[in-house]
Write a structure and sequence with these properties.
The structure holds two protein chains of two kinds. By secondary structure, chain A is mainly beta. Helix content of chain A is 10%, strand content 53%. The longest helix of chain A is centred in the N-terminal third of the chain and has 30 residues. Classes of the chains: A mainly beta, B mainly beta.
Chain lengths: 303, 327
């Protein structure tokens, strides 16, 4: 009797433990799933590429287009000018060091330099502000900007910065200045310009680091690194916001090309595309892969 | 400021100047003054700069078709073997390679590589034909290791690249000639034009071949007032020697030193580059016609003399004396 009375609480504790474990497993499983249905890219059509294709990237020789704005780089990459569609110079700027990475919004342009500083220029060419991560607590032995993303409203700035160690850092605008709001040290540094982008709603950032794809949630103020088996090795990538919270990407690994979708730090779609694929455009719900002679149009859809 | 020595002597370190060089740069300058080849073991050393076809471009105006107007900071260097050699041991800081997605990359197809050195210097290598080498996984490059290859653009042409040096500890771009050893340049620079621009108008004296002869003068009548003094100078190749580049411009106004400026370094500031102690950007050093602006000078009534002497880095000089009456 005495033994039976002692056994009951033990059984209860066992059941409670099992339930707690099941809840924990369910939580861990569910936490990995997006709140909304996964998305994929559905092929729509392939059309011949117009001879005067001007969206995204280099248009006429030396003129580079981003977000409907046109820029020309100085020969030594230490200066830039913005021109209008007719080629008329709107403004010109000189920087203390060569440009390594760039991001453009409608009203601002951000120029990351070899000396690690980031210069923000208004659409009329006025210097808006200069951010030096090293002077804001992001310390590395060598300063240099390797990746750059500016939020659509210009209120946040993400940068892949420095060597020994390399950092992924996010800055938030406070008045005229940008203050550090997040800093993550990375283990494996990259030494070339890397793709970084804010989502169209400004709530997340995707970018490529040596440790893997980085996903930053603005609301939570947290970043996660994704090491996807399909995106491993020495590859080059471009990332463009697609929809409110997703990103389309094009990756090159040797002669192989892959396109796909990223969302909330996950690869939601990935598929091979033509080896002549040279760029990616996003038009509303459509993602367009630029081939040498053709444009391949895909639609972002829920599964 | 570097005290310039006439003839074939090397520049030495001093105290005054439009800015103060970093201690490391000062040490390098002292070394340049005291060693035959101007080299210290731990300092950058720009190789292959002392041969036909090489040219120090630091301070040379550049006018690009796209509308840019600025002063250059590099040196055009030969590579007989095609290898682009590191100026000293360092860490690979940045590599820009030709992209699979060239259309969507700012800055075009050109490749470049930058090395960060332990003494605070950064060296930068660019070139139209440069193909950056595969870098070691450690990111470390030894002195004289190859960081890339260049090739001749056409038959009979030389394989060349541009090297630039940045002193990160003091925030200045340094004239690569300071780290190139002795330059066998025997051809003096050329004074093309001296100009005075002010409320009274634009007045200039053109030198041409005669400008190199001292006491050669041109006489004009100029209204009294303050004028910006600008000069058009060049350092051309004879076809046999390297070009060490225009380095120092000294102006005596009525026998007193009015300007004494050197292209030894350019301060890097938020708004760009500051040459000759003038405000950023570097375009501020150039007038509309691309002449180098040295500063402003009040020209009083009476007989005046502007005595301009231009030196290249190797010590060759050209002089022009401009005498004029002011009303």
């Amino acid at each position: 009797m005495a033994n039976g009375l002692k056994a009951r609480p033990s059984r209860r504790r066992g059941k409670i433990g099992l339930i707690a474990a099941a809840v924990a497993v369910a939580y861990i499983f569910l936490a990995q799933q997006p709140l909304s249905p996964a998305r994929t890219l559905s092929f729509i059509e392939a059309i011949p590429r117009p001879a005067t294709e001007t969206q995204g990237g280099e248009t006429t020789k030396g003129v580079w287009e981003a977000r409907g704005r046109y820029f020309i780089a100085r020969g030594d990459l230490q200066g830039v000018s913005e021109v209008d569609r007719s080629g008329k110079q709107l403004w010109v700027a000189e920087f203390p060091s060569p440009v390594t990475v760039v991001d453009i919004t409608e009203k601002l342009s951000a120029w990351g330099l070899l000396d690690g500083s980031i210069h923000l220029v208004d659409s009329d060419g006025t210097m808006n502000s200069a951010v030096k991560p090293a002077s804001k607590g992001v310390s590395s032995r060598f300063a240099c900007a390797y990746g750059l993303a500016l939020s659509p409203d210009g209120s946040r700035l993400a940068v892949l910065f420095g060597l020994e160690p390399q950092h992924f850092a996010v800055f938030e605008r406070r008045g005229k200045d940008y203050r550090l709001s997040y800093d993550m040290k990375l283990v494996r540094p990259l030494r070339g310009g890397q793709p970084f982008a804010f989502s169209a709603d400004g709530r997340s950032i995707e970018g490529l680091t040596g440790d893997g794809l980085v996903f930053y949630d603005v609301a939570k103020g947290r970043a996660a690194i994704l090491q996807d088996s399909s995106l491993r090795g020495d590859f080059e990538m471009i990332i463009a916001p697609a929809g409110d919270d997703s990103f389309a990407f094009l990756a090159a690994n040797g002669n192989e090309r892959y396109a796909g979708l990223l969302r909330q730090g996950r690869v939601e779609a990935i598929f091979p595309v033509g080896t002549d694929s040279t760029g990616i455009l996003v038009e509303g719900p459509n993602v367009i892969i630029q081939g040498r002679d053709m444009l391949y149009r895909y639609k972002v859809e829920g599964r | 400021m570097i005290r310039f020595l006439r003839g074939r002597e090397r520049p030495a370190a001093g105290r005054r100047g439009p800015y103060r060089l970093a201690p490391i740069a000062a040490i390098a300058l002292i070394a340049a003054a005291t060693t035959p080849c101007g080299r210290l073991g731990a300092q950058p050393f720009v190789k292959d700069l002392n041969s036909l076809g090489t040219a120090v471009l630091f301070g040379t105006p550049s006018r690009e078709q796209s509308g840019f107007n600025y002063l250059q900071t590099g040196a055009l260097t030969n590579s007989p073997s095609g290898a682009v050699l590191a100026v000293e041991a360092g860490t690979v800081l940045f590599v820009k390679r030709a992209s699979s997605f060239e259309m969507q990359r700012f800055g075009g197809a050109g490749e470049f590589v930058a090395l960060a050195h332990d003494d605070g210097f950064v060296s930068l290598y660019t070139g139209k034909t440069l193909i950056v080498a595969r870098m070691p996984s450690s990111g470390r490059i030894g002195a004289s290791d190859s960081v890339g290859r260049v090739s001749a653009e056409g038959r009979g042409e030389l394989a060349q690249y541009i090297v630039r040096l940045y002193d990160g500890s003091s925030g200045v771009w340094i004239n690569p000639a300071l780290f190139a050893g002795a330059l066998d340049d025997k051809i003096p620079p050329k004074i093309e034009q001296i100009a005075l621009q002010g409320s009274g108008g634009l007045f200039f004296a053109e030198g041409g071949g005669a400008a190199r002869r001292s006491a050669k003068s041109a006489v004009q009548k100029i209204p009294q007032g303050e004028y910006a003094l600008a000069v058009s100078v060049s350092d051309a190749s004879s076809g046999k020697n390297p070009v060490s580049g225009v380095f120092r411009m000294k102006v005596l106004f009525n026998g007193t030193v009015a300007f004494d400026k050197k292209f030894d370094a350019a301060r890097a500031a938020e708004g760009g580059l500051s040459f000759l102690g003038l405000d950023v950007p570097s375009a501020n050093c150039l007038d509309r016609e691309g002449r180098i602006v040295l500063g402003r000078q009040f020209i009083p009534r009476g007989q005046n003399t502007l005595d301009l002497t231009v030196f290249d880095f190797a010590g060759n000089s050209a002089r022009y004396v401009w005498s004029f009456a002011t009303e």
